[in-house]
Write a structure and sequence with these properties.
Elements lengths: L39 E6 L3 E5 L5 E5 H18 L5 E9 L4 H9 L1 H6 L3 E4 L4 E7 L7 H12 L7 H16 L9 H12 L14 E4 L1 H7 L5
Antiparallel strand pairs: 1-2, 2-3, 3-7, 4-6, 5-6
């Protein structure tokens, strides 16, 4: 995977899974140490988790996909709020294998797609993708368009602001590093630093925890050093 830029952790093209959006937990107990910005990445485990330590001595296990979803979600939500989702123009237009019904949605909802960072070309019967949100990996572009069509047709049962919020969660999922992606030590540390800077770092936008922490006291109990 590419090295992370200052504003985002790395992405990797791998299959995305659709998960239902759940309300963000209110007043959830922090699972990350208060000194998260001083975390030090130790290693990657099972190509899905980052092991890290903080100055309080706790061992943290971070789910790299959930953490990157949180980072990406907060970034694209801020961009969407000011109608400025970062997008990239494709070097070659991408032909889209869409059903007639999906093509009709694209034609009718071009302004909504544009607000989300998509630009289309081609003909009425042979649509192409000219530009897309910059955070989405090339391998995920067509799937992201299909998900956007679902959202715009109300497949998720939402409309208006709820629909937009649900779509931004889906966009974050498409844009985030997956389980199975190998991260270098620098990429691991960049992800931890960016997570610590989030407004709500403890849960991904679906409501799953981004990490768990294991204290030295817990380890002592498990190893029979204390009752």
């Amino acid at each position: 995977p590419p090295r992370p830029a200052a504003a985002r952790a790395p992405t990797a093209p791998a299959p995305a899974t659709r998960a239902p959006a759940t309300p963000e937990p209110a007043g959830a107990a922090p699972l990350l140490p208060d000194d998260a910005p001083r975390w030090r990445a130790l290693a990657q485990f099972a190509s899905a988790y980052i092991l890290a330590t903080g100055s309080d001595g706790a061992l943290a296990i971070i789910d790299q996909h959930a953490a990157h979803e949180r980072i990406t979600f907060e970034r694209v939500r801020q961009q969407h709020a000011v109608r400025a989702i970062e997008r990239q123009r494709l070097l070659l237009e991408l032909p889209l294998a869409l059903s007639p019904a999906a093509r009709e949605v694209v034609h009718q909802q071009r302004s909504a797609f544009a607000a989300w960072g998509f630009e289309f070309g081609g003909t009425a019967d042979a649509l192409t993708l000219r530009a897309a949100p910059a955070s989405i990996a090339a391998a995920r572009l067509e799937a992201a368009v299909l998900d956007a069509v679902d959202h715009l047709t109300g497949a998720g049962g939402d409309d208006g602001a709820a629909r937009d919020e649900r779509w931004l969660i889906t966009l974050a999922c498409h844009s985030s590093v997956r389980a199975g992606a190998r991260l270098s030590p620098d990429e691991q540390q960049a992800l931890l630093d960016q997570l610590a800077a989030c407004a709500q770092p403890h849960h991904c936008p679906h409501g799953r925890p981004t990490s768990i922490a294991i204290t030295p006291q817990h380890l002592e109990q498990r190893f029979g050093r204390r009752s």
